[in-house]
Write a structure and sequence with these properties.
This protein is an alpha/beta fold. Helices cover 50% and strands 11% of the residues. The chain is globular.
C-alpha cells in the first residue's frame, strides 16, 4: 500500500489545525487553508494559531495559505474541516480548483441546516461524481488540544471504498492516534453531529445544577434518540455504540473543554443565546445542528423529545426548567423500543 506523502487540510479551526500539526509531525507535507488572513500569517510566521488553538507550537513544515488552489496543489487527499454552515460555498470553490478526482475526508461534525443533509451528501451535491465513492468521514471523541499535546486519542474513519479507507487509516495513525475503519458513513456522521445537540442539553442540566443522575439519564436517553434516527436513515445501530457514537457523546456531554456543553451550561444559568454566541470566536455546531436534527426527525417520523426541547429553549424562548420538567413529566413508557 503506497504511503501518502502530501495532504491538503481545508479549515484552520482548532480541529483542522490539530490534524495538520499531527500529520506534519508524522512527516507528511501539509498545507492548511484558512479563511482568516491573520490565521495564515500567524501560522507561517509565529508558528501558532492564536485564534483557534492558542499556545500550541506548530511545526515549521506546516504551511498555511488563503488560496484553495495552493492548498490542493499536488496533494493526494483532502481533509475537510470547515463549519457546516459554510461548507457548501467552500466546497463549490474547492470544486473549481480540482483538475482530477481526489479522496476527501470530512472531519466536520455537523448537518447543513437549510437542507438537513450530512456533509458527504452536501459533497455529493457539489463535487464531481467520480469523487463520490472516495468520500469518507472521520469522527470520534477528540478534543483538539489533547491531540495536539500527544495524548492518546481514538477515532473512526468510514468510507465506501474499503481499500481507500485502509490507506488513509494507515496515513493518519500514530502511536498516540488510533484510527478504526468502518463502512457506515451515515452512522459515523450522524453520531458526530447529534452528540453536539445532546451536549447542549447536558450543559443545560449542569447549568441548572440538577446533578449527576440527571446528566447520566440525559446522555442515555440522548443516545436512544440518536440510534432511533440513525436506524430510520439506514445507519447500522452498532455504529452508535462505538467511538463516533457513545464515545463522542460521553466526551462532549461531560468534558469541560466542550464548546456545546459550555453554551448549554450558560443557558441553564439564565444567559441569552444571542449574548453567548456573540462572545464566541469558535463555532458551537450544536446550535445549528439542533434545528437540522429536528427537521430530520420530522421527515423520518422519529420521536426525539430531547432534541425537540432543546430547540424550544434555543429558538422559542422556552425556559430551561420548563423544558426539563416537560421531559420528566411525559407519559410513562417501557424503556426498550419506546420514546
Amino acid at each position: 500500500m503506497q504511503a501518502i506523502k502530501k495532504i491538503g487540510i481545508i479549515g484552520a479551526g482548532a480541529w483542522g489545525t490539530a490534524l495538520a500539526k499531527h500529520l506534519a509531525e508524522k512527516g507528511m507535507e501539509v498545507r492548511i487553508w484558512a479563511y482568516e488572513h491573520d490565521v495564515v500569517s500567524a501560522i507561517n510566521t509565529a508558528r501558532e494559531n492564536p485564534i483557534f488553538l492558542k499556545g500550541v507550537p506548530l511545526p515549521r513544515s506546516l504551511v498555511a495559505t488563503s488560496s484553495l488552489a495552493d492548498a490542493l496543489e499536488g496533494c493526494e487527499g483532502i481533509l475537510f474541516v470547515v463549519p457546516s454552515h459554510v461548507a457548501r460555498p467552500v466546497l463549490q470553490n474547492l470544486a473549481s480548483c480540482l483538475s482530477d478526482p481526489i479522496p476527501l475526508i470530512s472531519a466536520t461534525k455537523g448537518i447543513e441546516e437549510c437542507t438537513t443533509k450530512l456533509m458527504t451528501q452536501v459533497m455529493e451535491d457539489v463535487l464531481p461524481s467520480p469523487m463520490h465513492r472516495s468520500l469518507m468521514a472521520l469522527s470520534g471523541p477528540s478534543f483538539a488540544s489533547e491531540l495536539s499535546a500527544g495524548q492518546p486519542t481514538a477515532v473512526c474513519l468510514a468510507g465506501q471504498d474499503e481499500l481507500l479507507v485502509r490507506r488513509f487509516q494507515s496515513a493518519l495513525m500514530t502511536p498516540t492516534f488510533r484510527v478504526y475503519a468502518d463502512a457506515d458513513v451515515i452512522g459515523v456522521q450522524l453520531g458526530g453531529a447529534l452528540k453536539n445537540v445532546m451536549a447542549l442539553a447536558a450543559g443545560v442540566v449542569d447549568g441548572l445544577g440538577l446533578g449527576l443522575n440527571a446528566r447520566a439519564a440525559l446522555i442515555t436517553r440522548g443516545l436512544t434518540e440518536i440510534v432511533r434516527l440513525g436506524v430510520a436513515m439506514g445507519a447500522d445501530p452498532r455504529t452508535f455504540y462505538g467511538l463516533s457514537g457513545i464515545g463522542d457523546l460521553v466526551l462532549t456531554c461531560t468534558g469541560m473543554m466542550s464548546r456545546n456543553h459550555a453554551v448549554g451550561a450558560r443557558l441553564g444559568k439564565g444567559e441569552r443565546l444571542e449574548t453567548i454566541l456573540g462572545g464566541m470566536q469558535a463555532v458551537a455546531e450544536g446550535v445549528r445542528t439542533a434545528h437540522a436534527a429536528l427537521g430530520l426527525a420530522r421527515r423520518h417520523a422519529v420521536d426525539m423529545p430531547i432534541t425537540q426541547e432543546i430547540n424550544a429553549v434555543l429558538f422559542e424562548n422556552k425556559s430551561c426548567r420548563k423544558a426539563v420538567s416537560d421531559l420528566m413529566e411525559r407519559d410513562a413508557k417501557p424503556e426498550k423500543g419506546q420514546a
